[in-house]
Inverse folding.
């Protein structure tokens, strides 16, 4: 694997534009998780250490293109970066397309790129304007690697010099290793509500894994092949695909379940065999027998790939499956890799962030990568000989 990395370049006195993914969860102007910000710090610090004029750019949320909207401003992130993470002056630049002034040792953040018309359509003129702001472009936003936007693919095409940052490098290196040469047995956990959104992923993961544990609505669709699933979330249209997967691969489906009659903390929890679900019941977690057998399976694995919860972990009564699996992964000596929004929320809830070997900063990008899709930015970087995998 060859890559032109930021640490190999002379950045002295250079305008270094780092594309990061600062699309962090936020509520009422407050940052809920700073994981993505912290993950970008080594790149920013490296550029500062190398005497660069540091310029950061990111998207945030999904504002309507072409106009400023305070709700999607990067200002709260800039303040957080300045006061909590970098402890130095960080300034936000609102209007930057016609040129900016940044000095060596300074950190400037360009306002949300998604306010710019043409960003999401990868407009060439816009990408050229971005490119004119820098001497070196650093692609470090793995989280947005599945989008072909002006601040990613366009910029990589037109920048005088492009390279990749440590965050991007690590993501590609770790995910590539797990996909191509994992330590075996490799056990994958794929949870979440819909099989339809993860069907291709399920096929590609099943092909490379020694066992796949399915959870949530995905598991329910497998159960629905031969069982009544009552009011549970499942997708009848995908039962045939589930049948094919089950006949070809080692897919682990539950043997017992926790059910309730409504999605509420108040509902009465009953544990039962998969054959006994009533028409007014909803499957919301696995039962103890299933949990025990999955724990035993995970204990034997050498690599664990985790995306998506097992049950409705938002409700404490139906948290056990996800919690026990999460804690088993955390205590395991296997190489564990996790990604995706719900998975990260579970990891934070159970306080096991430091016990997972690798947490991807990507949501959609992580899923696309492990599905085996070529990410657009990777194609561009390959074409321009910045990386070769
Ligand atoms: C993410 O959160 O997955 C990335 O930042 C990409 O965001 P998007 O789905 O709005 O493009």
């Amino acid at each position: 694997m060859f890559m032109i990395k930021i640490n190999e370049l002379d950045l002295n006195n250079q305008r270094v534009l780092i594309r990061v993914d600062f699309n962090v969860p936020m509520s009422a102007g407050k940052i809920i998780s700073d994981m993505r910000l912290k993950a970008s710090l080594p790149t920013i610090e490296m550029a500062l250490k190398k005497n660069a004029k540091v310029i950061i750019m990111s998207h945030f949320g999904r504002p309507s293109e072409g106009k400023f909207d305070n709700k999607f401003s990067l200002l709260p992130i800039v303040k957080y970066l300045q006061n909590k993470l970098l402890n130095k002056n960080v300034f936000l630049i609102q209007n930057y397309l016609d040129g900016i002034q940044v000095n060596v040792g300074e950190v400037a953040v360009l306002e949300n790129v998604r306010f710019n018309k043409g960003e999401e359509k990868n407009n060439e003129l816009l990408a050229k304007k971005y490119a004119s702001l820098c001497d070196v472009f650093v692609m470090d936003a793995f989280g947005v690697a599945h989008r072909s936007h002006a601040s990613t693919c366009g910029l990589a095409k037109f920048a005088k010099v492009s390279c990749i940052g440590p965050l991007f490098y690590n993501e590609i290196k770790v995910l590539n290793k797990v996909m191509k040469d994992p330590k075996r047995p490799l056990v994958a956990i794929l949870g979440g509500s819909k099989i339809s959104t993860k069907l291709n992923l399920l096929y590609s993961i099943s092909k490379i894994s020694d066992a796949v544990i399915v959870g949530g609505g995905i598991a329910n669709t497998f159960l629905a092949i031969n069982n009544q699933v009552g009011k549970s979330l499942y997708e009848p249209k995908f039962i045939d695909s589930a049948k094919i997967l089950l006949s070809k691969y080692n897919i682990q489906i539950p043997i017992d379940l926790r059910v309730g009659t409504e999605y509420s903390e108040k509902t009465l929890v009953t544990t039962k065999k998969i054959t006994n679900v009533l028409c007014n019941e909803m499957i919301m977690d696995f039962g103890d027998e299933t949990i025990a057998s999955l724990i035993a399976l995970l204990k034997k694995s050498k690599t664990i790939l985790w995306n998506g919860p097992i049950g409705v972990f938002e409700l404490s009564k139906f948290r056990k499956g996800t919690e026990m699996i999460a804690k088993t992964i955390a205590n395991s000596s296997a190489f564990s890799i996790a990604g995706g929004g719900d998975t990260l929320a579970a990891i934070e809830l159970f306080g096991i962030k430091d016990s997972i070997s690798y947490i991807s900063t990507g949501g959609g990008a992580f899923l696309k990568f492990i599905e085996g899709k070529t990410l657009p930015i990777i194609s561009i970087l390959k074409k321009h000989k910045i990386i070769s995998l």
About this structure: Residues 35-49 form the longest helix (15 residues). The chain has 13 helices and 19 strands.
